Amino acid sequence: MPSIQLEINTGKLSGEGVITAQKKLSQLENVFEDEATRASMDQEQLIYEVQAFMPVEEGKEGGLYFGNSTIFPGKVNEEYFMTRGHFHAKLDTAEYYWCIQGKGALILMDENGKTWLEEMTPGSVHYIPGKIAHRVANTGEEKLVFNACWPSEAGHDYGTIEKEGFGARLKDIEGTPTLVATKNEMV
Amino acid sequence: MPSIQLEINTGKLSGEGVITAQKKLSQLENVFEDEATRASMDQEQLIYEVQAFMPVEEGKEGGLYFGNSTIFPGKVNEEYFMTRGHFHAKLDTAEYYWCIQGKGALILMDENGKTWLEEMTPGSVHYIPGKIAHRVANTGEEKLVFNACWPSEAGHDYGTIEKEGFGARLKDIEGTPTLVATKNEMV
């Protein structure tokens, strides 16, 4: 019997061991630049949803996890709905994201704060090398869906991003997704 | 720019850095049980084709590769067309296969020779744990296509399978794919 099932056209996972986590706007305090606007919006709004299949314990070397993420369309003021973003706890571990539907941006940052993006469209495959923080924003009108594969030893370091942020924020500037450098940081 | 492109419905990869390798029947000497029949067939027959995207050097810890394999339909006597099969050179490293089209079997073997299978159908996702040899057979009438993700430190150990084989062979027994134990080995 296969481990799990994947709906090829939607990216959705099902089967024993698939876990699901959701992030509502209420759980994303201080993630967006305009915190006052975030706090004034509907706190029940679902921003993103992650499915993960983790057949071995986190931290084990040589194992792999498989995931599916959905980011809903919307903005907090000019800034697109996006994930919190993270480095891997074991810093030098890679990850793949591949886009199934929708339109988005993979925002990447190295350890010096240099920040850039890769456009996500259906079929785009993104190799995220080790030591690179990653965050995904939905820049379209429909949901953005992608699958992922990453090492079980990678772990997540959300703290560095919570404290220091990315070197730039992705904003809708007159209809165009634009990376805008944050003060004291470079793009 | 994304690393590469994936055709979601066909599994095909394209873009800079995607390499392709083919195995013809002439290159699979002694892989099938009935070597005399294999040697008498069209040696130019394509048995399988592999695409791989390997953005970091093989052996590097923490990196990941992405692949696409196609196994063509057919048999050598009763035995389905299949891959050579391998353990990973760094034995305790995992891999994912996920089936995009066709019908097949993922044949798995532990270090004691115990051999079993998982059916592959579109959308089936297979976690291959570390220390498990793996081979894929096409049991259908059309091509079998799957994608794969594996660690850059995994490498390939084909020699153990060349020498010892799997504990069983997958044969068409009166129209049903059936694992048949090889002598002195267990299923």
Automatic annotation (TrEMBL), chains A, B:
Gene Ontology MF terms in the entry: glucose-6-phosphate isomerase activity
Domain Glucose-6-phosphate isomerase prokaryote: 22-175
UniProt cross-references to CDD domains, sorted A to Z: cupin_PGI
Pathway this chain belongs to: Carbohydrate degradation; glycolysis; D-glyceraldehyde 3-phosphate and glycerone phosphate from D-glucose: step 2/4
Major enzyme class: isomerase
GO cellular-component term (any): cytoplasm
Domain of life per record: Bacteria
Family matches, as InterPro entries: G6P_isomerase_prok, RmlC-like_jellyroll, RmlC_Cupin_sf
Keyword Glycoprotein: no
GO biological process annotation, one example: gluconeogenesis
Family statement drawn from the similarity comment of this UniProt entry: Belongs to the archaeal-type GPI family.
Protein name in the entry: glucose-6-phosphate isomerase
Organism, scientific name: Flammeovirga pacifica
